[in-house]
Amino acid sequence: MNFSVLISVYYKEKPEYLKDAINSIFNQTLLPNEVILVEDGKLTDELYNTIKSLQEKYDGIKTICLKENQGLGPALNEGLKYCSYDIVARMDSDDICMPDRFKIQTDFLEKHPDIDIISGWIDEFTGYKENIISTRKTPETHNKIVKFGKSRNPINHPAAMFRKNVICSIGGYKAIPLLEDYDLWVRAILNGAHLYNIQQSLLWFRLSDNAFLRRGGIDYAKNEIAFQYNLHKIGYIGVINMYSNIFIRLIIRLLPNMIRKYIYVFKLRK
Q1: Could you tell me the residue range of the domain that residue 266 belongs to?
Q2: What is the dihedral of CA 61, 64, 69, 71, to 10 degrees?
Q3: Confidence band for 114, pLDDT divided at 50, 70 and 90
Q4: Sorted alphabetically, which Pfam families does this protein's record hold (predicted)?
Q5: Percentage of residues in the chain with pLDDT exceeding 90?
Q6: Extended beta strands in 139-213, E state
Q7: 215 and 110 both lie in a single domain
């Protein structure tokens, strides 16, 4: 099965993290046909040098350069235009794929042509990938994913693989910071797509204090209130579900960062 890998990188990324991410892609038991790397705005010289060295080391890395930083959703939409294959694997520029990830996912999609979006669990780590502090587990089957999605994001985006035609048919990603993937999965469900989660970890996900800091504050809370209202408006959740989600999220967003980190890592993970 031919497939593309889609990554976006921006100027704040650390070159060594990007190198780890790309190396993990080309150390797979099943290699991709191409890697589409979107440069979301002007990068640092260190990042440009890292990308150049990686292109010299590996065949098939294509860069798409955006003049200005547009954010993850718009950057991925632009990258999708250049993906040559209908199967697209997502990857973040600071995470690390487990060696069998692509083979496991493509084998499943080949055997299950009715599945449009697939992901799996992710092991969250700090410092080095062996230092796993939590695992984000998501439900397996479509109906359970739909139910889970009414309160929490049901698909781990950095480990996702999907059929490009399905994603493009619903308009791709929207510019909703930190919620662009959640919004995408809901719209896909409402448009008849079928989802599945492999019940094992497929990726090492890099955690930092800054990751939890981005998920707090008034502005993020406002975005999430608008997001929950839209989920109700489009018919995915009921009004009681909406108000319950807003209440819980407002508390979490306005808590001190260290407490929010504790809740994410030790209360929202299995």
Answers
A1: 209-270
A2: -70
A3: very high
A4: Glycos_transf_2 (PF00535)
A5: 81
A6: 161-163, 195-206
A7: no
